[in-house]
Amino acid sequence: MSDNPALVWFGLDLRLADNPALERAIAQQGAVLPVFLWAPDEESPWSPGAASRWWLHQSLEELEAALAKRGSKLTVRRGPTAEALLALAAESGAKSIFWNRRYEPAAITRDRELERRLRERGIAAESCPGNLLFEPGTILNASGKPYQVFTAFWRACLAMPGPAEPTPAPSRLRAPAQWPASLEISKLGLEPKADWAGGMRQTWRPGERGACKQMTAFLGSGIEIYATDRDRPDHGGTSRLSPHLHFGEISARRIWHEVRRHGAAADSYVRQIGWREFSHHLLFHYPHTPREALRPEFHRFAWRTDAAGLRAWTRGKTGYPLVDAGMRELWHTGWMHNRVRMLAASFLVKHLMLPWQEGAAWFWDTLVDADLANNTMGWQWSAGCGADAAPYFRIFNPVIQGERFDPEGEYVRRWVPELARVPNQWIHRPWEAAGVDLGKKYPRPIVEHAAARKRALAALGARSFAG
DNA sequence: TGAAATGTTGGGGCG
DNA sequence: ACGCCCCAACATTTC
Question: Residue A76 phi/psi, 5° resolution?
């Protein structure tokens, strides 16, 4: 038993169950002091976007309530992180600080410096495994290099001993003799000034309880048909766990174990968790990739400049119904179905030939699941400049994708009401529908598919560039 | 976790 | 019965 509380610094681990840092703090046998620090500058230029901040606000309130129920409290302060932690240690008498690791380049640099400074002051600093299945750096090929191809990477993962079983949330937390001063969560200014979050409130329930509920609903509602249904934006057959995973409201280890109980039917879902794993390991090994293409030949590729095209894309006014539906779903709910993300990304990069970084920046600001590793890998995959990337000639046809994955146009009509009356036959190519009055209500395609395709093939296939 | 062009096959209509 | 054409359906190649 100790008089000195152990400090738990929360980051992207806004949960009490299966939380290694929290467990280590409890194991000290003394009081536990849970802390959240707001220090967005330290993640610049990848500080949380507007949608992420909205989510974070809700999730912090949930965490605060969950702690209160266990006789504890969340202490909230502003950064800089090192100064804030040192101040809290001094005020509370804490001699040890625990946190769960993050794997973004800025977080890794910060952690290293932090550990040095804390130890310098005689404070035990211990970082614990973050929200991944396998620690980055541990999955390497025969020659000790990171995998560049997902299938090989995932096979190597599956050959490893699996992650530990998840642990339950503690039922009580010992409170310190007195609580340090704390900011109100609302004082962090995370919520939007103008209230544009209505669609998000309707769609999501941030926080650990929401995450558990979502996982239970997903597992109970036919993970068996996930393999095929996940490609149907009109069916809602995906897990929708991505924002919960990003904020660590549920642990990847827990998902791994819960899902695998469902046998072989769940393999294709676990594989998606594998892609998340892959992206985090890639970011760990190639920290420059949020800015720059992994494949160096792309450094000199001349992307176009087209402010009007970019605006049309962000607003969901490209004239291609499935692309526009996706971009509007994103704007309204902070999320987009993955099949449609691939199409929207392909459209920006191949049809408009705008730099993938512009798309990544927009997604970063608007997605509630914005995650540096996933976002970076996804965009580089789409642009063909990353690991296991789509080859340059893989260009999605928005009409065919629509007819294949939203055959009745139900998804399109939900998000693009201007097209509500267009018959199924024309729903993905309304410009060909005779007697349907578009133009004013819905734009004609901003680029013609066949011509845009040829342009992209010529530019991306040029010998001087990619060979 | 593509699409389009090109090639091949086989059934049916027809002289 | 046969050759010829057309074309859908499928397979392969190319971008």
Answer: -115, 130
